[in-house]
Amino acid sequence: MRVAAGDREAFATVYDALSARVFGLVLRVLVDRSQAEEVTQEVFVDMWRKAPTYDSARGSAIGWALALAHSKAVDRVRSSQSQRDRDERIGIRDSVAPFDVVSEAADVRLEGKRVREALETLTEAHREAIVLAYYGGLTQTEIAERLQTPLGTVKTRLRDGMIRLRAAMGVS
Amino acid sequence: MTQDREDIAGRALDALDHEERRRFDEQADEATLAELADMQETAAALGAAVAVAPPAELRARIFEQVAATEQVRPEVAVVGGRDDEAAAQDATEREPAHVGAGASTAGPRELAAQRRWFQRPASVLAAAAAAVVLLVGGVGIGQAMRGPDEVSALVHASDVSTQTASLADGTRATLMWSHEQGDVALVFEGLSALDQEQVYEAWLMRDGEPIAAGVFEGGDGSVVHVLDGELQEGDGVAITIEPAGGSEQPTSQALLVMTT
Q1: ipTM of this model?
Q2: Residue from B234, B212, B215 nearest B223 by CA
């Protein structure tokens, strides 16, 4: 096994490549900027710690980093706020522009455009379930309650929606 | 559809509650995990679509933390090479040692110095590993990085013991072991790289017989090798250079032999 030196520079490269995506996602889920900064910091520190468990056969490094970021953001939202707070927060957030991509990187902007277009190809029911789960941080049970829809239906919508989304984005 | 498969999307989107998630992770088979990985990539695209540049101060804060971590890069390597005065000075700057009884044959000063490194080696090693894995993103490195976790477990073992020695070229090697964990690891600070046809191989020496304990490569910075197999009372550890892929029995003179 080999652990390379010069890791500070390597980490800087990793940070610069991923920070806008990590921060943007965490901010999207948490809405609150100062909490988003805290969680982003946790995410990058954790990326150091959990690197040994990263398995490239199971997906890209970016996928891994964003999965970690999302799960931490969701943990934070579930631990720090009551259901009512969160509903309120989502209400406020949804009244703002749903996709406020602010990034200088052209490839990131393009990526965003591709995903937005893919989301628009979904049915409203599929899109709604995915957005509430992923950007809203709701559990599937909470989504079922919120939409007054059976849990099984929500699961099916999430699953079918994700499969269609993948097809629409051309993610292999 | 089985329970876990219908929850794959929920798992990929973090939409399972604590209990559902625990059950999913327990029951998931290989096929489910493969599909999950696929869906996580799709979820990641959703994540990447809302990128927002973080404030510059955040970068500074995170790097401050990284810089602090890097100050405790393996120091054991230089302890033995210092004269008493330098060691004494260092010892006064460091906290007293609390390495377990019988931890080492080293004097108190060396223990103090060792502890400084052993307090946080896992974070240092994992930090470097993270950078490498994320940058390379290739097959092999990620899977090979099982070291830091085991090193971390070793460091926290109540009976962790250490010993340092030098290779002929002056490279310092630290052996770290725990009978409780049954683990033993070698840490080198800057180990000469070999040509492509050769690897380093570690051996557990038991009753005078070598047992192959894994191959590893040299490199700049910290080189860590967690030995294969379970450590037993009285085992020694040896290092040889072997043809690529390793040998079943040593084919060259040992570069290093240490006792536990």
Answers
A1: 0.83
A2: B215
Cross-chain residue pair B20–A166, CB shorter than 8 Å? no
Domain assignment present for A32:
yes
Question: Which residue matches tokens 């629409």?
Answer: A168
Q: Does A58 fall in a domain?
A: yes
8 Å CB contact of A52 and B131:
no
Quote the CA–CA distance of A30 and A16 in Å, as a whole number: 21
CA distance A161 to A29: 20
In chain B, residues with a C-beta closer than 8 Å to the C-beta of A139 are 10, 15-17, 20
CA dist A162 and B12 (Å) reads 9
Opening angle at CA B86, ends B85 and B88, nearest 5: 65
- Model confidence at A134: pLDDT above 90: yes
Q: A162 near B9, Cβ under 8 Å?
A: yes
Q: Which residues of chain B are modeled with pLDDT < 70?
A: 1-3, 66-158, 221-222
B72 touches chain A (CB under 8 A): no
Q: What is the pLDDT of residues B159-187, one digit of tens each?
A: 777 777 777 777 777 787 888 888 888 87
Q: What is the pLDDT of residues A68-115, one digit of tens each?
A: 899 999 988 887 554 455 556 555 444 333 443 333 345 555 667 788
B221 neighbors B251 (Cβ within 8 angstroms): no
What predicted TM-score, i.e. pTM, was given to this entire model?
A: 0.53
The predicted structure's pLDDT at residue B15: 96
Distance CA(B246)–CA(B35), nearest Å, equals 36
User: Mutating which of B4, B21, B52 best tests the A interface, going by the most A Cβ atoms within 10 A?
Assistant: B52
Tell me, yes or no, whether A50 and A16 share the same domain. Answer: yes
- On whether both A62 and A106 belong to a single domain, the answer is no
CATH classification at residue A90: 1.10.1740.10
Same structural domain, A111 and A134 = yes
Q: Cα(B58)–Cα(A40) distance, rounded to whole angstroms?
A: 9
Domain boundaries, position A162: 101-169
Residue A79 shares a structural domain with residue A130: no
